[in-house]
Write a structure and sequence with these properties.
With 150 residues, this protein is an alpha+beta fold. The chain has a single domain, classed as Beta Barrel (Small Protein B, Chain: A). The chain has four helices and nine strands.
Length: 150
C-alpha cells in the first residue's frame, strides 16, 4: 500500500517559499479518520499553533463522516488537533516560527503505507506580490520550453 494523499494545500505553495518539510502524526478521533479516508478535508486555511510545548493543527476543516452516530453532538469540524512530534522537533519548529517572516503550514494530509494519518508540514517564508508573479512567469517559461522540446 502506497501513500494515499487525502488533501493538499496548493495555496501554501503560492503564498510561501517552502524552506523545509517535516512529517508528523495527527491525534484524531475515530470518526475523523473515517472522514479523512473519504477525503472530506480542507487544509487551505490551516496553520500550526504552539502552546505549552505542544504543536497543534488549527483551522483545518474535516467534514463530519456521513454515517456518524447521533450521540456525537459536539462535533467541531475545525477543532485543534494535536500533532505527534518529538519535543526537539517541536522546539526547533517553534523557535523558527518566531523568527520574522517564517511560519509553519500544513502542506498535505495523507495515509502512509501502514495506514496511519500523517500531515506534511512546511516551514515557509511569505512571498510578496512580485515574488508570486516571478514564480508564475518562471513556470510559464518552463512550460513553453517543454512544449518547444516536444
Amino acid at each position: 500500500m502506497d501513500k494515499k494523499t487525502v488533501a493538499t494545500n496548493r495555496k501554501a505553495f503560492h503564498n510561501y517559499s517552502i524552506l523545509e518539510t517535516i512529517e508528523a502524526g495527527i491525534a484524531l478521533l475515530g470518526y475523523e479518520v473515517k472522514a479523512l479516508r473519504g477525503a472530506l478535508a480542507n487544509i487551505s486555511d490551516g496553520y500550526i499553533g504552539f502552546a505549552k510545548g505542544e504543536a497543534f493543527l488549527e483551522n483545518v476543516h474535516i467534514n463530519p463522516y456521513e454515517k456518524i452516530s447521533t450521540h456525537v453532538l459536539d462535533f467541531n469540524p475545525t477543532r485543534k488537533r494535536k500533532l505527534l512530534l518529538h519535543k526537539t522537533e517541536i522546539g526547533r519548529l517553534e523557535s523558527k516560527a518566531k523568527e520574522k517572516g517564517l511560519t509553519v503550514v500544513p502542506l498535505e494530509i495523507f495515509f502512509n503505507e501502514h495506514g496511519f494519518a500523517k500531515v506534511k508540514l512546511g516551514l515557509g517564508k511569505g512571498k510578496h506580490a512580485g515574488d508570486k508573479r516571478e514564480t508564475l512567469r518562471r513556470r510559464d517559461m518552463d512550460r513553453d520550453m517543454e512544449r518547444e522540446l516536444k
